[in-house]
Design brief:
Layout: H1 17-25, H2 33-47, E1 56-60, H3 67-85, E2 91-95, H4 102-112, H5 123-137, E3 141-145, H6 155-172, E4 175-180, H7 182-188, H8 192-195, E5 198-202, H9 210-221, H10 236-244, H11 248-265, H12 272-277, H13 289-295
Helix pairs in contact: 1-11, 2-3, 4-5, 10-11
């Protein structure tokens, strides 16, 4: 009955429903080809020779398509290496703060480095503190998740941030990784000088093809349900794809919600009817007027 499951997942069928649901809802790494390609590019930034003009990576794709998970995976891999080798971490993962300007930009990096808080609006003081920490810690890669957050201000503020990124490469041998939406690509490609400093790691929206069906097979093998659901079979796969709109984050959310419902109901498998019963609204439709009015 459990042949559809990965062997390591089969013992989970003996666990109480609450434990299985907690396992289903936990974040999980999905090693798609795009994710593996992106990790290879990020690793190359760590393995490169020292340089005065470092190159970075743009990790670009639509919302809810796994970019942040790739960035976090990369940082976790470095942390584990550092713990094993009893060495310093080489990757800094920054959650880019909302708002434009160098003050917010520096503050996000300092927070990632767990630096003590100094005068809030003093840009020069923050720059000096950051320079001191970079000289001391000597990281090799700095990853800016949601980098598009700092590209919504004045052109001179954006250019100042790009100037800092260039200086990081020259002064500290740092490779920047910019994670986020298409607006990052548009800003970088404005000039050939900036475009030459970044390689593209695309995380595109999925097409309905064999790769997507394989993704559904992988998901089914990771869900501790006693019965097979046939997620990659037509028309089940087509329904999941339409609801998810080709976004991996949405695909995982839909399948997870349906699996949790299957455990709670005792059905132990996902069906087209149970998917429809979720009442799942595709991302592009959630802002429609009719839906908004129904919430008023």
């Amino acid at each position: 009955m459990s042949e559809h499951l990965a062997e390591s997942l089969r013992p989970w069928l003996q666990q109480p429903a609450a434990a299985r649901i907690a396992h289903l809802q936990a974040p999980r790494w999905i090693g798609t080809q795009a994710a593996r390609n992106a990790l290879d590019l990020l690793q190359a930034c760590l393995d490169r020779a020292p340089a005065l003009r470092t190159r970075g990576v743009m990790l670009i794709g639509p919302y809810a398509n796994g970019k942040s998970m790739i960035a976090e995976r990369f940082a976790i891999m470095d942390r584990r290496r550092a713990e094993t080798e009893r060495n310093a971490r080489r990757v800094v993962l920054v959650q880019t703060r909302e708002g434009s300007g160098l003050v917010n930009f520096y503050a996000g990096i300092l927070a990632a480095l767990e630096a003590p808080l100094i005068r809030t609006r003093d840009t020069a003081a923050k720059a000096e503190q950051l320079d001191h920490l970079l000289r001391q810690l000597k990281p090799r890669v700095i990853v800016f998740d949601e980098f598009h957050n700092c590209l919504r201000g004045r052109n001179r503020d954006i250019e100042a941030i790009f100037a800092v990124l260039r200086r990081f490469g020259r002064d500290y041998d740092l490779s920047p990784v910019l994670v986020g939406e298409l607006t990052i690509f548009d800003h970088i490609m404005v000039t050939a000088e900036m475009a030459s400093r970044f390689q593209l790691a695309p995380v595109p929206r999925w097409s309905y093809d064999e790769a997507y069906l394989s993704l559904l097979d992988s998901l089914e093998g990771a869900l501790p349900l006693a019965k097979s659901s046939g997620l990659s079979d037509e028309p089940m796969a087509r329904l999941i794809f339409e609801l998810s709109e080709g976004l991996i984050g949405e695909t995982v959310a839909i399948v997870t919600a349906a699996a949790v419902a299957a455990v709670r109901s005792g059905a132990e498998h996902i069906s087209r009817n149970s998917l429809r019963d979720l009442g799942y609204i595709p991302l592009s439709q959630r802002r429609q007027t009719v839906i908004r009015e129904a919430l008023a």
